[in-house]
Design brief:
The chain has helices at 3-13, 30-42, 62-72, 78-89, 103-109, 111-120, 137-145, 160-169, 190-201, 217-224, 234-242, 247-266; strands spanning 18-24, 47-51, 97-101, 125-128, 149-154, 174-177, 208-211, 229-232. The chain is an alpha/beta fold. The chain has an eight-stranded parallel barrel with strand order 1-2-3-4-5-6-7-8, surrounded by ten helices.
């Protein structure tokens, strides 16, 4: 079993939900990322999504777009992101780590070379935002052959047929985008999310993690009551953006927010 499968199974047995945290690798500088990852785990994070900085992050809102810009100023790349995964694994062999990004850097590296590099970095999952499942069979086979879970995004208008397709070729978990639009936008409609998660579960046996719109302990608790996992990203990166002059404070505020989310989800 993969680290992701074990993590979700262990949490389910304990009656708990996964706290999944996204950050952009190299934001605001490369030295900040790996120590922050360890601090997030200490704060109660179960799964880390490490974003690969990209020049045109079309699914992301302004907060993550600016994070990518800050990281790219430091020459961040897919290879350097994977190097951070290797560094993280020197201390933490337990926390599932998902590489999240766009297709272009993977295509530039080459699917097989990327899969091999991700395996060497002990990456557990890969979520390629702009790779539709209809075109993903070749890359998912390369990942699965190396014990890496291909993870797919579901939208509010995803059909049951599409859910079944993503379940057939994906693994680890399904990431349900709870809002139409980009990351960091809008407000959660609890009824809509609950109904859609129920529909997804009727067509998939994979855990469902819900993201987009999770901003604080209250929204984290709301989503945890509905889904198997809660994904937070923009709310964390906002702490970095507003505290670039004091990264100790940025880290402290991120830890405080995650700890509050963890506590709310467990109560």
């Amino acid at each position: 079993m993969s680290r992701l499968a074990v993590k979700f199974e262990d949490l389910a047995k304990a009656g708990r939900k996964a706290l999944v945290a996204y950050i952009t690798a190299g934001d605001p500088n490369p030295e900040f990322t790996v120590p922050l990852m360890h601090a997030m785990v200490e704060a109660g994070v179960d799964v880390i999504e490490l974003g690969v900085p990209f020049s045109d992050p079309m699914a992301d809102g302004p907060v993550i777009q600016r994070a990518c810009e800050r990281a790219l100023l430091h020459k961040m790349s897919l290879r350097r992101t994977l190097a951070m995964a290797i560094e993280f694994r020197k201390i933490d062999q337990n926390t599932p780590l998902v590489i999240m990004g766009y297709l272009n850097p993977i295509e530039a590296m080459g699917y097989e070379e990327f899969a091999n590099a991700a395996q060497r970095a002990e990456v557990d999952g890969v979520l390629t935002v702009d790779l539709p499942p209809e075109e993903a069979e070749a890359s998912t086979e390369l990942l699965k052959a190396r014990g890496i879970d291909p993870i797919f995004l579901l939208a509010p208008n995803s059909t049951p047929e599409r859910v079944r397709l993503m379940t057939a070729i994906g693994s680890g978990y399904l990431y349900y985008v709870s809002l139409k639009g980009v990351t960091g936008a809008g407000h959660l409609n609890t009824v809509d999310v609950s109904n859609k998660v129920a529909e997804i579960k009727a067509n998939s046996n994979l855990p469902i993690a819900v993201g987009f719109g999770v901003k604080d302990a209250i929204t984290a608790k709301t989503v945890a009551d509905i889904a198997d996992g809660v994904v937070v990203g923009s709310a964390l990166i906002s702490k970095i953006e507003t505290n670039q002059d004091d990264l100790v404070r940025a880290r402290s505020q991120i830890v405080e927010l995650l700890s509050a989310m963890r506590q709310a989800m467990d109560n």
